[in-house]
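sorry for the late reply, my laptop died twice this morning and i had to redo everyting from scratch. anyway the thing you sent over, i finally got around to it. pasting the sequence first so we're on the same page, its 106 residues, then the predicted structure underneath. double check i copied it right bc i was rushing
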Amino acid sequence: AHITGGGLLENLPRSLPSNVSAEITGHPPLPNVFSWMKQVSGLDDHEMLRTFNCGIGMVLIVKKDVVDEAKALLRGAGEDVIYDLGILTERQGSEGEQVEMKSVLA
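ok and here's the structure:
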């Protein structure tokens, strides 16, 4: 998922089947510009994640058993900043958010 306007909360669901939810359990520290924007705007975490990419420009969704291989391929391609953002779970019905933030932006 390419995270653009709409942030993580609106872009990630476009890459997920309707019966799958994402739990974000490990958001990396906010880059300085986003920390400043959060402070001066008074936006809460949900609005920050719905509006801005908060430093996450791209999300790869891979099976658990190939995470290490995917990271090795990314590092081999010159990517040295890689984060594990969370997990995918089975979604019960279509109610509620498809992406749930389980960590706090800092």
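Residues 32-41 form the longest helix (10 residues).
thats about all i looked at so far, will dig more tmrw
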